[in-house]
Design goal:
The complex is a heterodimer of chains A (390) and B (289). Chain A has 390 residues and is an alpha/beta fold. Chain A is built from 14 helices and 17 strands. The chains are: A alpha/beta (390), B mainly alpha (289).
Chain lengths: 390, 289
C-alpha cells in the first residue's frame, strides 16, 4: 500500500468516525430531583421516568430532530429537597453542563428558588412542587406534569363527604411552602363540601414521632385523618402510629400517590381500608405497560409520580421534533404548550391552567380514588379536574 | 378534652423519645470522652443498627431480643474495627477527626442507599395492642422499648461502675494521660470506647426501628438532637447526657401537646439556649464554660 492510499484510508476512517459522531450528537437533559432524605422516593421516581423515556428513544437509534439523531443523556443531581442545593445544582446544569431542559425540581421551595435562573436562561423546568406560584404567565418556561391539591382536592373531598360521610377531619402538613399550600387548599375543599378540618398540625420534615399530635387529634374526636401530600415515609409513620394508638376512623390520602411506600412503613394491616388518591389505573394498557417496564428495569414497583414524568419527557421529545430544534428552547416551549391529546402512559393528555395560573402549563392528568384492600389499590371512583369523581 | 390522660400519654411518649436521645447522647459522649472526637457519623451508626435489626428480623427471621443482642455485638466489633483502621491517626485531633467522621457519615449513608435503596422499610412491631394504666392508653410496643432501653442502661451502668474494663474506660474518659500514668493501657481503650459508643447508637436504632421506619437518612435528625443533648448535659459528662436526654424527650412531648408541633420544635431550641445560658458548663458539667 502506498503512503498515499494508506493516508487516504486513514482519513476516510477518521472521517467516518467524525461523520458518525456528528450524526449522533448528545442531547443533555438535567434532572434536579430529591435523591436523599424523606422525599427521595419521589425524586427517584422522576429520575427513573426520564431515564426510561431516554432509554426508549436511544434504543430506537436516538431522537430524530431536524434530520439529526440525538442520543439522550439524563444528568441527575440531588437537591436534597432544599432550595439552596437546588440553586447550586441548577447553576451547574445551566452554566457548566449547558442544559436547556430540566426534569424537576421536586419540591416547591426549590422550584421557586431556581426559577430566576431557569426563566432568564430559557431553560424548561417541570416541577412536582405543589405551590401555585410555580406557574404563571411571567414564567413561560415552567411546566408542571402532575396535578396538585388545587386540581384534585375539591373533587375528591366532595366524594369523600358524600359517599363516606366524612365530617370532622384532622390533618398534618410539613411546615414549608408545600405544606402551607396543601393545608389552605384542603381546608377550603372540606369547608366547601360541608365538612370541617377541625385540626391541622404543621411539623418539621425530619420528624418521625407523631404520637403527641395524634393523641391531641384523637382527643378531639376526628372521624378521619387526611395525610394528603406528606412524604411517603412520613405518611407511613403517621398511619402506623395512629393505628398503634387505637385510631379506628378513616384514614384518607387525598394527594401524593405513595400507597406501596406507605404499606412498606406501616404494614398491610394498618393501611387496610385507607382511601387514596391514585394516578394509576392498571386496567389501562398503556399504564400497565409502563408499570411493567419500570418494574423490569428498577426491580421495584412504580411510584405514582413516575408516569407523569415519563409522559412529560416524551412530550418534550415530541415538542422538539415539532420545533425541529433542540437548542431553541423558546420554540420547544411553544410547541410543548400546543400539544393536545397526547397518547401517554396515563392516557390522553393535554395542558390546562389558563384560568387558574394565567398560562396553560399545568398537565391535566386523569386520577382515581382507590381503597386499599389487602395491600392493593381497588379503584372506587374515576375523576377528572372538570367532571369530578364518579 | 381530658388533660390528665393527655399528659399521661405525653409522659410515656416523652420517655420513649427521651430514652432514644439518652442512648444516642451517652454513646456520643463516650466517644468524645475517649477520643476527643466529635463523631458526626454517630447518626449513621444509629441507622446501621436499625438496618441490622431489619435484616436480622425480616430477612433472617430472628426474634427481636436476639436481633438486638446481635446488632450490638456486630456494632461493637464493627465500631472497634473502624476506629482501628480509619480513625486511629486522628485520635485527639478534634478538627481533622471531625472531618473524617463527616466523610465516614457520607460513605455509610451512600452504602446503605446502594444496598437498601431510598424507600423506607419497616420492622414488625415487637408487640401488638395497647395497655391501660389509670386510664392512660399506651401502645405495648412502646412499653417494651422503654423496658429494653432501661435494661441496656442498667447494664451499661453496671459495666462502667463495677467491671475493671468499665473503670478503665471511665478513667480514660476522665483524663487519658493520668490514666496512662496509673497503668491503664489507653490505646486498647480507644477502639473499645468507640465500639461501645457506637454500639449504643446501634441499640437505639434497633430499638426504635419497630416504632419508626428505617431508611438510609434516618440518622441525621437524632444526631442533631444528640448533639444538643450532650452540650446541654455538659460535654463529656455521661450522667449529664443521660439527664439532658430524658429532659429533652419529655420537653418535646409536652410542648407538642400544648403547641403546634413546629412551634414546639422552635421552643425547644429556645429552651436549650436558655438552659445553656443558665448552666454554661452543662447541667452536670464538665463542659467548657
Amino acid at each position: 500500500m502506498t503512503r498515499f492510499t494508506s493516508s487516504l484510508l486513514a482519513s476516510m476512517i477518521l472521517g467516518g468516525f467524525a461523520l458518525h459522531a456528528s450524526a449522533q450528537e448528545t442531547l443533555k437533559i438535567g434532572a434536579v430531583v430529591t435523591l436523599s432524605g424523606a422525599g427521595a422516593s419521589w425524586g427517584q421516581a422522576m429520575k427513573n421516568a426520564a431515564e426510561l423515556a431516554a432509554d426508549k428513544v436511544n434504543a430506537a437509534g436516538g431522537l430524530d430532530v431536524g434530520g439529526k439523531k440525538y442520543k439522550v443523556q439524563i444528568i441527575p443531581y440531588d437537591d436534597k429537597y432544599q432550595a439552596g442545593e437546588a440553586v447550586t445544582v441548577t447553576n451547574r446544569l445551566v452554566f457548566e453542563d449547558k442544559v436547556k431542559y430540566i426534569i424537576g425540581p421536586t419540591g416547591s421551595a426549590p422550584i421557586l428558588a431556581v426559577q430566576p435562573i431557569t426563566e432568564k436562561n430559557q431553560v424548561i423546568t417541570s416541577t412536582l412542587g405543589f405551590t401555585d406560584k410555580a406557574l404563571s404567565a411571567e414564567k413561560p418556561f415552567s411546566f408542571r406534569p402532575v396535578n396538585t391539591t388545587v386540581e384534585f382536592a375539591e373533587q375528591q373531598v366532595n366524594w369523600l363527604v358524600k359517599s363516606l360521610g366524612v365530617k370532622k377531619v384532622g390533618a398534618m402538613f410539613p411546615n414549608d411552602e408545600t405544606g402551607q399550600v396543601m393545608a389552605r387548599d384542603l381546608e377550603g375543599a372540606y369547608t366547601k363540601a360541608g365538612s370541617t378540618m377541625a385540626a391541622k398540625e404543621f411539623y418539621e420534615r425530619d420528624r418521625v414521632d407523631f404520637v403527641p399530635m395524634l393523641t391531641k387529634m384523637m382527643a378531639r374526636g376526628m372521624d378521619a385523618i387526611d395525610i394528603n401530600g406528606n412524604s411517603p415515609a412520613t405518611a407511613g409513620l403517621i398511619v402506623k402510629q395512629a393505628r398503634e394508638l387505637g385510631f379506628k376512623g378513616k384514614i384518607v390520602r387525598t394527594g401524593g400517590p405513595a400507597t406501596t411506600e406507605i404499606i412498606g412503613v406501616a404494614g398491610k394491616e394498618a393501611v387496610e381500608g385507607m382511601i387514596v388518591y391514585a394516578v394509576l389505573d392498571p386496567s389501562l394498557p398503556s399504564t400497565k405497560a409502563y408499570m411493567d417496564a419500570y418494574a423490569a428495569k428498577y426491580k421495584t414497583s412504580v411510584n405514582g409520580f413516575s408516569p407523569p414524568y415519563y409522559d412529560f419527557t416524551n412530550m418534550l421529545f415530541e415538542a422538539m421534533r415539532r420545533a425541529g430544534t433542540v437548542t431553541d428552547s423558546q420554540k420547544v416551549a411553544a410547541e410543548l404548550e400546543n400539544i393536545k391529546d397526547f397518547d401517554g402512559a396515563l392516557g390522553k393528555l393535554g395542558w390546562t391552567g389558563k384560568t387558574r395560573y394565567g398560562i396553560n402549563h399545568q398537565l391535566a392528568v386523569p386520577f382515581y380514588l382507590a381503597e386499599v384492600k389487602n395491600g392493593a389499590e381497588v379503584t372506587r371512583a374515576r375523576c377528572t379536574v372538570v367532571e369530578g369523581c364518579k | 378534652m381530658n388533660w390528665y390522660l393527655l399528659l399521661g400519654q405525653a409522659t410515656v411518649n416523652g420517655l420513649v423519645v427521651g430514652l432514644l436521645y439518652l442512648l444516642m447522647a451517652v454513646g456520643f459522649t463516650l466517644v468524645f470522652g475517649v477520643m476527643r472526637m466529635v463523631n458526626f457519623a454517630h447518626g449513621e451508626f444509629y441507622m446501621l443498627g436499625a438496618f441490622a435489626a431489619y435484616v436480622l428480623m425480616v430477612h433472617l427471621g430472628a426474634p427481636f431480643l436476639l436481633a438486638v443482642v446481635l446488632t450490638v455485638v456486630i456494632a461493637i466489633v464493627f465500631g472497634s474495627l473502624v476506629e482501628w483502621l480509619v480513625l486511629k491517626p486522628f485520635r485527639k485531633d478534634e478538627l481533622n477527626g471531625m472531618i473524617v467522621t463527616i466523610g465516614l457519615a457520607m460513605i455509610l449513608q451512600n452504602v446503605a442507599l446502594m444496598v437498601f435503596g431510598p424507600d423506607p422499610v419497616s420492622v414488625p412491631a415487637i408487640a401488638t395492642g395497647a395497655s391501660s394504666f389509670l386510664g392512660v392508653t399506651v401502645a405495648n410496643s412502646r412499653l417494651y422499648v422503654i423496658a429494653f432501653a432501661v435494661a441496656v442502661l442498667v447494664l451499661l451502668y453496671v459495666f462502667l461502675r463495677h467491671s475493671a474494663v468499665g473503670r478503665g474506660l471511665r478513667a480514660v474518659v476522665e483524663d487519658a494521660d493520668i490514666a496512662a500514668l496509673q497503668g491503664v493501657k489507653a490505646r486498647l481503650y480507644y477502639p473499645l470506647g468507640f465500639g461501645i459508643g457506637i454500639g449504643l447508637a446501634a441499640i437505639a436504632g434497633a430499638l426504635m426501628a419497630p416504632l419508626f421506619s428505617v431508611s438510609p437518612f434516618m440518622g441525621q435528625a437524632p444526631l442533631l438532637k444528640a448533639f444538643m443533648v450532650v452540650i446541654l448535659g455538659g460535654l463529656g459528662s455521661i450522667p449529664g447526657a443521660a439527664l439532658a436526654g430524658l429532659c429533652l424527650g419529655l420537653l418535646e412531648s409536652y410542648t407538642a401537646l400544648f403547641l403546634e408541633s413546629s412551634t414546639a420544635d422552635m421552643l425547644i431550641f429556645i429552651l436549650v439556649i436558655v438552659g445553656m445560658l443558665a448552666f454554661p458548663r452543662g447541667l452536670i458539667g464538665k463542659g467548657e464554660a
